[in-house]
Amino acid sequence: xxxxxxxxxxxxxxxxxxxxxxxxxxxxxxxxxxxxxxxxxxxxxxxxxxxxxxxxxxxxxxxxxxxxxxxxxxxxxxxxxxxxxxxxxxxxxxxxxxxxxxxxxxxxxxxxxxxxxxxxxxxxxxxxxxxxxxxxxxxxxxxxxxxxxxxxxxxxxxxxxxxxxxxxxxxxxxxxxxxxxxxxxxxxxxxxxxxxxxxxxxxxxxxxxxxxxxxxxxxxxxxxxxxxxxxxxxxxxxxxxxxxxxxxxxxxxxxxxxxxxxxxxxxx
Length: 268
What we know:
By secondary structure, the protein is mostly helical. It has helices spanning about 25-40, 45-80, 85-100, 105-125, 130-155, 160-170, 175-205, 215-225, 230-260, and strands spanning about 10, 10-15. It has a domain at about 60-205: MetI-like (MetI-like fold), CATH 1.10.3720. The protein is built from nine helices and two strands; from the N terminus they run ββααααααααα. Strands 1-2 form a two-stranded antiparallel sheet. The chain is flat, with a radius of gyration of 23 Å. The N and C termini lie far apart (about 60 Å). The model has no long low-confidence stretch (mean pLDDT about 85).
């Protein structure tokens, strides 16, 4: 009698071969099912999760908005750092080194209580005083310095010969950057960008110090009104874990998509 191949049941292939599933995933799924069963059977946890729901939505918005700002700021800083102009390179290096040398919490407080109030007074725009806007600017500028180095590494990884070949074919430097360099660089930097997105999701909890009602701040409010620290912070930690695991899974799917033949190829 021939043995049943691993990853099959009754001769049929399983959707997910069990022999390829890492042990830590099985442990995590088992623990998650136990926790979910516990939450479903407790009115205290259900009430806590209902209270924290608004904080989850604010955390997700804060993360996506801040990461969008960081992507734009980081790309501009990386291009300036690779510029032929010594002045522009100096400005970019100064931004990267100063921002990376200051703790993110200190940078967030500085932007929230120094930079944005000044901008509100100068421009007369009131929304600069909104705490969510302050948090998005602080986190976006802070992470932009790290993404600038990620972009720069990806751009410099493209062989110089490809750039010279594109220029010899008549493409301008902006066209070469858009059609030849950036698509290939994006494939290279996608894993670290995904890691930074997950890290930003967790660091969004720093916005609680400026009274943004994200998940951590909502948890503190729930403890203040119910005095249930154990249940509240259990729920907060579980929600962060679920969001980070979902984000990591999304990054892996995106990485697989970029490995498809022809992805990032030159398209005039």
